[in-house]
């Protein structure tokens, strides 16, 4: 697989350039790593454009590997997803994110922010998902509206019936749902109307071209308008420049997230950053 992957489109996918033996070893290490507490969460602030306040934070997983250092999800999420280990990983992330959100909610000096958690496609269609979410909220006594689950457009349309049922149950629980990577997965307008979601998160690939490509400007503007037409918030991810921020303000985008504001940081740094902006 190593030789075949070289120089082809798959080079972006680290999985295809590694052998089955490599993947198996990684999997074993990850299973141990989860059990031994090697996973970490970092948080990236979400800023409301109308007043510049931090209203939320996206939890992003990292793996403190014993020899390879701090690994980003691109190094291990796919392997986890293909193997079913993503259930254990997803459960750890949910627990840790809700624990943190509850700590912030209780701390009178902390800015109250909702915490967004990424769900894999497998988690979304896992029949135990809703009970697991409900249990973790109860365990940490987190008000449900302070948890937002991010599901990709691709995961939604892979099994629209299962997705609709899961989303409806999550909505009943009171947790928020965000459609991640919006614009990349060919969700039809019919589905958009039928999925009970609270926000659309416009994919970074479109945000990147803002102010540089008329095409991308048009797509982002259309996504914002679409979100508002179906009564949900528009969030833009991957905002890296002031020019992009200004374009999003002009388009009426509600919330933004990206390196222009802050990289993902640890929980304490996120609160510090939020406090500074509050003045
Ligand atoms: P995503 O959900 O689209 O998350 C956004 C990714 O873009 C993050 O990468 C974030 O660090 C990065 N990012 C944020 N702002 C900027 C920016 O301004 N410019 C650029 N170039 N990048 C920016 P990260 O943390 O490496 O995560 C990559 C992907 O891994 C995520 O994409 C998500 O799909 C997945 N992932 C992360 N954490 C979890 C998790 O806990 N569970 C699951 N199932 N997937 C996760
Ligand atoms: Ca949010
Ligand atoms: Ca996300
Ligand atoms: Ca995304």
UniProtKB/TrEMBL annotation:
Boundaries of every EAL domain copy: 23-278
Protein's name in the database: Diguanylate cyclase (GGDEF)-like protein
Lineage, highest ranks first: Bacteria, Bacillati, Actinomycetota, Actinomycetes, Kineosporiales
């Amino acid at each position: 697989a190593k030789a075949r992957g070289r120089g082809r489109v798959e080079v972006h996918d680290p999985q295809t350039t590694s052998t089955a033996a490599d993947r198996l070893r990684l999997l074993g290490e990850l299973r141990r790593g989860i059990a031994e507490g090697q996973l970490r969460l970092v948080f990236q602030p979400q800023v409301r454009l109308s007043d510049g306040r931090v209203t939320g934070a996206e939890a992003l997983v990292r793996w403190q590997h014993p020899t390879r250092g701090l690994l980003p999800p691109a190094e291990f999420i796919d392997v986890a997803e293909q193997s079913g280990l993503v259930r254990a990983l997803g459960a750890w992330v949910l627990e840790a994110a809700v624990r943190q959100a509850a700590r912030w909610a209780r701390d009178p000096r902390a800015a109250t922010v909702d915490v967004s958690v990424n769900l894999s496609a497998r988690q979304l269609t896992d029949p135990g998902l809703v009970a697991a979410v409900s249990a973790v909220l109860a365990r940490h006594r987190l008000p449900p509206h302070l948890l937002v689950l991010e599901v990709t457009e691709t995961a939604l349309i892979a099994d629209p019936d299962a997705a609709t049922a899961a989303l409806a149950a999550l909505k009943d629980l009171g947790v928020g749902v965000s459609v991640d990577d919006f614009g990349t997965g060919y969700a039809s307008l019919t589905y958009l109307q039928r999925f009970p979601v609270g926000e659309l998160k416009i994919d970074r690939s479109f945000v990147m071209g803002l102010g540089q490509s008329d095409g991308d400007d048009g797509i982002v503007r259309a996504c914002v308008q679409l979100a508002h037409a179906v009564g949900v918030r528009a969030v833009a991810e991957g905002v890296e420049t002031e020019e992009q921020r200004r374009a999003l303000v002009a388009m009426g985008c509600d919330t933004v997230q990206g390196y222009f504001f802050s990289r993902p940081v640890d929980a304490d740094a996120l609160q510090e950053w939020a406090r500074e902006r509050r003045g």
